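F.,

This is the one I mentioned.
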């Protein structure tokens, strides 16, 4: 009786070990697939930089540069409402 329990326990440990390996491999693959998120982050930084350059140019009275920067923002994000608003004011 005791020998049967240990044999079953050994098999379940092997199954548990194989499940652990499979789950670890899946987790590794999923974590490596997140490369596109950094690309969006870089894009957001560029949008923010263009918007800030446009805002500062408008404050200094350089409306041509401000218009160019706001148009650059809208090329990257056509739904950027503040860039539309400031472009209309400039």
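My design for it:
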């Amino acid at each position: 009786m005791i020998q049967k329990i240990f044999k079953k326990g050994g098999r379940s440990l092997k199954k548990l070990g194989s499940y652990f390996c499979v789950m670890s491999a899946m987790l590794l693959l999923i974590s490596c697939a997140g490369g596109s998120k950094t690309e969006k982050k870089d894009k957001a930084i560029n949008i923010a930089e263009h918007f800030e350059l446009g805002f500062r140019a408008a404050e200094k009275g350089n409306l041509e540069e401000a218009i160019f920067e706001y148009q650059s923002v809208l090329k990257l994000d056509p739904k950027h409402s503040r860039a539309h608003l400031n472009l209309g004011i400039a």
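The chain has two domains: 1-33, 36-90.

Talk soon.
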